[in-house]
Amino acid sequence: MFHPRRTLTALLLPLVAGLALTAVPAQSAHAASTLANSGFESDSSGAATPTGWSESGTTAASYTESGGHSGSYRLTHYAASAYKVETYQSLTGLTNGAYRLTAWVRSGGGQNSAYLALRNCGGAEQRTDLPVSAAGWIHLVVPVNVTTGRCTVGVVSDANAGNWINVDDLTFAAGSATGVAVKGADISSLAKSEAYGGTYRTSTGTAGDALTILRSAGMNYARLKVWVNPADGYNNKARVLAMAKRIKAQGMKLLVDFHYSDTWADPGTQTKPAAWSGHTYSQLRTDVYNHTYDVLNALKAQGTMADMVQIGNEINAGLLWDEGSTSNWTQLVGLLNSGYSAAKAVSSSTAVALHIANGGDEAGTRWWFDNAVANGARFDVIGLSYYGYWHGSLADFQTTLDDAAARYGKPVYVAETAYPFRLDSEDALTNIIDTTGELVAGYPATTAGQAAWLRDVMNIVEAVPNGRGLGVFYWEATWTAVAGNGWDPTDASSGNGWENQALFGYDDRALPAMTWFGHR
Question: One of 362, 416, 462, 476 is an active-site residue; which one?
Fold first, then answer.
């Protein structure tokens, strides 16, 4: 991720409370493991209660309507005044085990809560909130363990006047009852922040170790960038080794993000390390191998082996310019494969990822990975950066993610995402995102808006077909405004344009978004 006033766009393209409703009457149950009228095609437009479904609350706010996801009709919740309504169906005679509810949804946003629910299944009610997506349909899943032979499927709205949702094409079938495997964050800034006096607190104000706080919230994976010889002496091999010990001591897994530079690498900047600046392409291949092997082998030797590595960071236009740019795919893939070979030489079990930005650009993602595959690139996992204020809608993001997983047969993950909890700066540097016009519609720059963003991105990754949605890394969760810990490793006085997107607030307390690491 880049720093002040982000050049990428010029170069490339308190948690919501749920609504408790009354129990489902027994007469609504049917003895089947398949939902009745799951696409709402058994009714004409305007049907007050869809066939096979029941309603409670403001029932006039729930009805079928023309314009389905795949068929002619959909379920709509809408009223001109505030309303609370649930459209539900109870399934009985189920074989106990793991199930998944899936649905296609849209929402104009603004509700107190709007979600898919599974309850009366034998454990705690499971919910997945509807993301704000007025134009495009989003595919969601809700996993649950059935232990009582029955389960109630509900579509719930606690809405203000004029709020609306659409739901269509639901399924309820056996499947995994677990969420995403990776619930991580990039914490590359942490060591320097602590060295310059940065402090971190729990949500209640108790001072503590940032890693402990994040782990207690449910974070299970940490991402660290590594530079070759940075001017400030941070994010180099020695610092990564030291931080890796702390990460592994917390029981977390480790992703090492190789930038192959002395400073930031991203779609707009892929500058060679100074020590490699005069090297030929052949020498650069050796440099990549040796540097990758050296860092990873040192991690292995101290008992903190990397679980995943990225060979390059946001390499949309290649890496180690000019030799490794996308103007020469043969050379670019040669460099990437040098990194892959080095990682596997240290540990065959370490997953190797290729990471590009612009996670809502399906055509661009296809172009990049089609070329990489055609030229023999070796990789295990696909990583995409997705920042909603730059990279397209949530629907675009889901389309890109699902397509990449299916087209290349690889697990996919969000290597970077973030969202502001406020717009003003805590230091002298103007924030990267600092006006309401830059925000994603339906996601305000508040602690609740930030939490909703992380929640909805995680839900979309979870819904990737065939279990290929690996997880999410929140970018720079610990990069708070600390004098001396600015964006420029060559300038100690540089500021931080990202402190309003950290997972710790201006009072250094853990923010509500962090709790989504512990979801399911």
Answer: 416
Q: What is the band of 33 on the pLDDT scale with cuts at 50, 70, 90? A: low
Question: What tens digit of pLDDT does each residue of 479-509 get?
Answer: 999 999 999 999 999 999 999 999 999 999 9
The crossing angle, in degrees rounded to 10, of helices 237-249 and 281-301 is: 40
Q: Kindly state the DSSP code that residue 516 receives in the 8-state scheme.
A: G
Q: What is the DSSP string of 441-459?
A: TT--SSHHHHHHHHHHHHH
Q: Which residues contact 396 (CB under 8 A, 6 or more apart)?
A: 136, 360, 361, 362
Q: How far apart are CA 453 and CA 443, in angstroms?
A: 7
Count of all residues that appear for the chain in the document? 520
- Model confidence pLDDT, tens digit, residues 72-128: 999 999 999 999 999 999 999 999 999 999 999 999 999 999 999 999 999 999 999
* Residue 416 annotated to the active site: yes
Look up residue 231 and give its two tokens.
């001017």
Catalytic site residue from 314, 362, 462, 499 = 314
- For residue 70, give Cα distances in angstroms to 22, 89, 128, 402, 511: 31, 21, 21, 17, 39
DSSP, res 415: E
Contacts of 441 (CB under 8 A, 6+ apart): 109, 132, 134
The whole-model pTM stands at 0.93
Quick check: is 438 catalytic? no
In sequence order, what are the residues at sequence separation of 6 or more whose Cβ sits closer than 8 angstroms to the Cβ of residue 177?
Answer: 98, 99, 100, 143, 144, 145
Q: Which two tokens stand for residue 360?
A: 């809502």
CB contact at 8 A, 512 and 437: no
